[in-house]
Amino acid sequence: MNAGVAITLLSNAYAFAQGSGSATSPTHPNTAQAQQQTCKPLADNPIVSQASPSLPAQPKRIVVLEFMFAEDLAAVGITPVGMADPEYYPVWIGYDNVRLASVPDIGTRQEPSLEAIAAAKPDLILGVGLRHAPIFAALERIAPTVLFKYGPNFTEDGARVTQLDWGRKILRTIGCLTGREEAARAVEAKVDAGFARDAQRLAEVGRGGEQVAWLQELGLPDRYWAFTGNSTAAGVAHALGLNLWPDEATREGTAYVSSEDLLKKPKLTVLFVSATEKHVPLATKLDSPIWRFVPARSAGRVGLVERNIWGFGGPMSALRLADTMTDTLLSLPAPAPGVNKQER
User: Fold this and answer.
1) Which of 189, 301, 311, 339 supports an S-S bond with 296, CB 3.0-4.6 Å?
2) In the chain, where are the structural domains located?
């Protein structure tokens, strides 16, 4: 993939992520709490922006207009009959590629083809309000439609809601919509078990409480996304006992940073997510003259993460992110003692 395509995809993800709210401190409902929740009417569901008044009880032919929903359907054992941008799904998500490899293309996530959607003969369409609200009526004429909000707009009981929390709620709702509630609970149990395993690996070697940054390469000169305190990466880091920098919440769950922003972070470990093909050396990516003065770089605490570890996926993507965050962190030296790990 060339840099232009990478930037386009990242910009699209940025647009999808808009709508995340700011708040105070993370909260992470566990699977036991989720199991106590019942399927509520969509009119009372805060993650749904629009929905058809009548929906099929157990839809079999579902079209998805966003990667996360394809991932969630695959996770509960359903193959969609159409999806947007299927050629890019393996690049950025990659969960259960075998199942999704032959799903028909119904256009792009920004401009899906109504003709292609109709040809798939769906009995349910899943989309995103931010993108697809203008065509909701047209989609609804083809099949019953549900549009999700992506990010949380408000706190819950005074606590921050991360995009990970929101993604879990989307999975549960998809489980309800498809009659796969038990399968959705099993997915969450698997994710929680993975988080616990990775947290234990870090704790056993004294890496708990470490400050990390999850940076996404954008193909721009010395400009990156740092995933912030209400992002999925923050939810994962919290579950692993780590502290994500920057901690503040932002509307999109990301903030633009440069190498200069890292100069006064002596204890920060940087996990740098590539946007290019594999085998491009980290040194080639960190080509700003300022990088040589960044403490994490001089101490060997910048780790390269190959692409398709995507910060805007569902719970299974979050599990992969947790495994990768843990593996990469453990491959790097720990910060030297003597400075507060949680230094801001």
Assistant:
1) 301
2) 27-191, 206-330
Distances, alpha carbon 232 to alpha carbons 29, 95, 200, 254, in Å: 14, 16, 20, 10
For the record, the structure tokens of 316 come out as 């299974």
Give dist(CA 12, CA 89) in Å, integer.
13
Q: How confident is the model at residue 343 (pLDDT cuts 50, 70, 90)?
A: low
Structural fold of domain 27-191? Rossmann fold (3.40.50)
Q: Which of 22-31, 46-55, 186-195 has the highest mean pLDDT?
A: 186-195
Q: Judging by beta carbons within 10 Å of its beta carbon (0-12, 13-18, 19+), is residue 175 exposed, middle or buried?
A: buried
Closest CA relative to residue 34, chosen from 160, 140, 175, 142: 175
Q: For residue 225, give every residue at least 6 positions away whose Cβ sits within 8 Å of its Cβ, in sequence order, or none.
A: 10, 14, 215, 216, 218, 254, 255, 256, 257
Give one DSSP letter per residue of 143-189, joined into a string.
S-EEEE--S--S-BTTBB--HHHHHHHHHHHHHHHHT-HHHHHHHHH
SS3 letters across 10-72: HHHHHHHHCCCCCCCCECCCCHHHHHHCCCCCHHHCCCEEEECCCCCCCCCCEEECCHHHHHH
* CATH number attached to the domain at 206-330: 3.40.50.1980
* Per-residue 3-state assignment (H helix, E strand, C coil) for 214-236: EEEEEEECCEEEEECCCCHHHHH
- Tell me whether the CATH fold assigned to 27-191 matches the one assigned to 206-330: yes
Distance CA 284, CA 328 (A): 19
Q: What distance in Å separates the CA atoms of residue 249 and residue 236, rounded to the nearest whole number? A: 15
Q: Is the pTM of this model over 0.70?
A: yes
Pairing of strands 254-257, 211-220: unpaired
Residue by residue, DSSP assigns 238-283 as: HHTT-EESS-S--SSSEEEE-GGGGTT-TT-EEEEE--S-TT--HH
Please state the separation of Cα 226 from the chain's center in Å: 13
pLDDT digits (tens, 9 = 90+) for 78-125: 999 999 999 999 988 999 999 999 999 999 999 999 999 999 999 999
